[in-house]
Amino acid sequence: MMRYIKPLRIPIYQIPSKKYMKEEQADELFRSRLVVEEKLDGNMIYRPVGRWILYLEDLYHRRTIPYRIPARYALFDIYDIEEKLILGRDDRIAVFEDLVKIDPALKYQIFHVPELERGVFNWREDPIKIADSPSRFADQKMQSRKMEGVVFKLEQTIKITEEIIKYLKIVNAKFVNDEFYRNMQPEKITGLNVIDPSCVSTERKNQSHMTKEIL
After folding, report:
1. What are 27-60's pLDDT values in tens digits?
2. Long-range own/partner contacts, residues 18-25 (CB < 8 A, 24 or more apart)
3. pLDDT in tens, 163-191
4. Nearest 10 degrees: CA dihedral of 202, 207, 210, 214?
5. How many other C-beta atoms lie within 10 A of the C-beta of residue 95?
């Protein structure tokens, strides 16, 4: 199985012990069209389904942010084992819809992380502005807090090459609110997130083209 390429932090707020990308790496990534997704505060797991590996946030246990979510698992990436592709968001949604046709139970177990925006962004300003709001799945019955953060990903499907693996070429980036770190210490919310199948987040309805880009 491919080692998951974790997004590096955008070099805005520098927290000791955290790893950040270099400014020139951020400049290169942010020249491309990107999709911005909400970063949900859960436990990352993966689930093989045929030729696909689904990367998920397990949100059953509440950590620092109280959520009201439509299912336990939030899908944020899919890897194509046969073609060695990380799917872009539109292709990811299309593949998941095909998987649901084969196994309808997936629809009640997994939902997509929210898409917030897409386009070309300024990495020095836009992450802070976009992340400065409550989670799309914030539990309104509890204290409202900012979302954990945002993840910027290349819009298109990406071929995972030896160059990307060897040189750790940047294909995504994340920004985490400093408020999130403050809420982690010294207190931590305990309990379970609320699973409510009627809870939905606004999603884009874009057609998929399964476009590859060799980086």
Report:
1. 999 999 999 999 999 999 999 999 999 999 999 9
2. 21/170, 21/173, 25/170
3. 666 555 688 999 998 776 665 554 555 68
4. -70
5. 20
Burial profile 70-90: b = 16 or more Cβ within 10 angstroms, e = fewer: bbbbbbbbbbbeeeebbbbbb
Q: Collapse the DSSP code of 146 into the 3-class scheme (helix H, G, I; strand E, B; otherwise coil) and give the result.
A: strand
**DSSP codes of every residue in 45-101:** EEEEETTEEEEEEE-SB--SS-BEESSSEEEEEEEETTTTEEPPHHHHHHHHHHHHH
All domains of the chain, ordered by start, with CATH? 8-199 (3.30.470)
Residues 6+ apart with CB under 8 A from 104: none
Q: How confident is the model at residue 161 (pLDDT cuts 50, 70, 90)?
A: confident
